[in-house]
Amino acid sequence: MIVCGDDGLAHRLAAELRGVYAEQVTLVVPPSGRRLRQPMAGRARAASAALLDRVVNAAVNRTGANGEPAAGEPVVEAPEITEAVLTEVGADRAAALALVFDDDETNIRAALTARRLNPRIRLVLRLYNRRLGQHIEDLLDQTAALASGDGRGEGLDASTTVLSDADTAAPALAATALAGTGKVVQTEGLVLRAVERQPRPGEVADPGLCTLALLSATSNDPAGADGSEGSGEHGPRLLPDEAAVASATGRGTVVLEQVSYSGSSLPAGRGGVPPFASLFSRRLRWSLAGLVGCVLALAVALMIVADEHPLYATYITLLDLFGINDPALHQSTARQVLQLLSGLVGLLLLPVLLAAVLEALGTFRSASALRKPPRGLGGHVVLLGLGKIGTRVLTRLRELNIPVVCVESDPDARGLATARRLRVPVVLGDVTQEGVLEAAKIHRAHALLALTSADTTNLEASLYARSVRPDLRVVLRLYDDDFATAVYRTLRAAHPHALTRSRSVSHLAAPAFAGAMMGRQILGAIPVERRVLLFAEVDVAGHPQLEGRTVGEAFRAGAWRVLALNTAPPGGRRGEADPPGEERVPASGLVWDLPPAYVLKAGDRVVLAATRRGLAELLGRRRRERAGA
Predict the structure, then answer these.
(1) 8 A C-beta contact, residue 457 and residue 481
(2) Which residues, other chains included, contact 251 with Cβ-Cβ below 8 Å and sequence gap of 6+?
(3) Distances in Å between the alpha carbon of 576 and those of 138, 507, 594?
(4) DSSP string of 87-142, one letter each residue
(5) Mind spelling out the 3-state secondary structure of 561-576?
(6) pLDDT by residue (tens digit) across 545-587?
(7) CA–CA separation, 567 vs 94, rounded Å?
(8) Is 511 exposed, middle or buried (0-12, 13-18, 19+ CB in 10 A)?
């Protein structure tokens, strides 16, 4: 396995492949102290000689004195991922290559070169532009299929997966800030949520689709508070069996629930046309209502005084109101008084109508401008930072119809266009300055999502928000995973009754990237405290732990659980008759209520939840069997 990158995700991914999947990994990084790319002209040629020396030294350092692999993965420094670099690190014989540079162009250029060198290599690209990523994925897969000779790629163990660390981490970051929604996994028409449920005396908890995990035995236990690997019996237990769930008294659970897809849930008016209620201010609407009430009262009074039909009395009142009726010179005193009052109301109507026109024009003029938080807003989520991660999280929150107020210091941030399109209120300003969080109504907010690119800014904003609201739900994005763990433990100890989560994007994204390098389609990842559950779509064929077994027999506690069956082509069993004794399964779509007696066939494709080690075991046995054959 080869991992190429220039930030923490590359190191985290290499550690994931080596520690969880026991793979041989070569890490390619830029030279020490240099994070930005140099100009393209002459860059690769100038570094060729030094590069070959580094590669040779790295190859020598891969083994110790006795020829055994040395601790850790080989690290190669290269200023540019060129054909020479890929050749020297063994891309022509590698199983998979991950390109996780922060620059999309660098990843695309290296992927095209790698596919030409090795049509059978599995490629995993980190791209922020999702539309471009889909085109690149199709292009590289078509190239691999043509290289197989038949144009279809049958039997070719090559695939291209385009992922975004922002998209991978956004569901977990957004779900942590939601009340009652838990953690969300979403892929096209599939929406699932993992809900944390605390035990209540005398109440039987709804298990949902299945129980994903048992939470830490003691929420205030420092040993298990982080939920890290190896936290023992006090830590979280992933994918427990029914006996473990029944015997785990006093422990909270994480259950999986299905949410039906209801199409686009973006708020109305995203095309730039504001809703009718926003055309006029509340004061102006009350003024118009008062004038209408005065007109109706004058019409009723005229109907009583002159004994006229209601429609005729209303018509005469409107004529007096607009000053186009004849003076009531020889009529009763009451009629004359009513005519004067109607004229007075008409004079008051003119400035109100003018104000309505001006407000409507101003509303249309500012439809493309950023909105300000409404005065009575409460129970919302305050989102700090509209960069790559913040923009994805904002979209997730609005898809779930959660009210959001954004805070951004850069007036040219990429996420401002998304906030404007979704009509989300935005406060422009530095969150470290006094009054900025107050303008975002932090004292009435439900949660704070600190997702800026600066760890100190996120930490400072979170501490200040906690001083305003000690019970505020706080989620921090921190770059370093160790720092995130330390902050999490400290804030949890300081505020034991408030929910605090510190999340490293690389920690959340690395399992999905590693799973894609192992040749599976990862649907998403759900964090359970400091551990991670993966949701993957796997072909049953070639896995003895699944093939020929019932759904109940295929379940392994703490490792994996079959959740659904994909019966759509090319998998499934469309048109086949169900064998006697088996319950009938629909011919197409995803089936989530699989009967335990259903036998998994070689042509089936299943969706399963698995721990990282459980998923590695499924693939590891298959790989060893192929090697033995």
Answers:
(1) no
(2) 199, 214, 215, 216, 217
(3) 31, 43, 17
(4) HHTTTTT-SEEEE--S-HHHHHHHHHHHHHH-TT-EEEEE-S-HHHHHHHHHHHHH
(5) EEEEEECCCCCCCCCC
(6) 999 999 999 999 989 999 888 776 543 333 333 433 333 433 3
(7) 33
(8) buried
Cα-atom radius of gyration of the chain, to the nearest Å? 32
From 558, 573, 557, select the one nearest 606 (Cα to Cα): 573
Predicted TM-score (pTM) above 0.90: no
Exposure b/e, 158-181, CB count within 10 A at least 16 = b: bbbbbbbbbbbbbbbbbbbbbeeb
Rounded Cα–Cα distance for residues 139 and 13 (Å): 25
Whose CA is closest to 360, among 272, 281, 269, 270?
281
Which of 144, 161, 129 lies closest to 514 in space, CA to CA? 161
Tens digits of per-residue pLDDT, 317-367? 888 888 888 888 888 888 888 888 888 888 888 888 888 777 776 655 554
Integer CA distances (angstroms), 497 to 176, 192, 235, 474, in order: 16, 28, 19, 12
Tokens of 392: 């994805």
* 264 vs 84, more confident: 84
Identity of the residue numbered 35:
R
- For the four alpha carbons of 604, 610, 615 and 621, in that order, the dihedral sign comes to negative
- Confidence grade of residue 126 (pLDDT, cut at 50, 70, 90): very high
DSSP 26-46: EEEEPPTT--SPPPSTTHHHH
Residue matched to tokens 């449920």: 197
Contact criterion met (CB below 8 Å) for 519 and 503: no
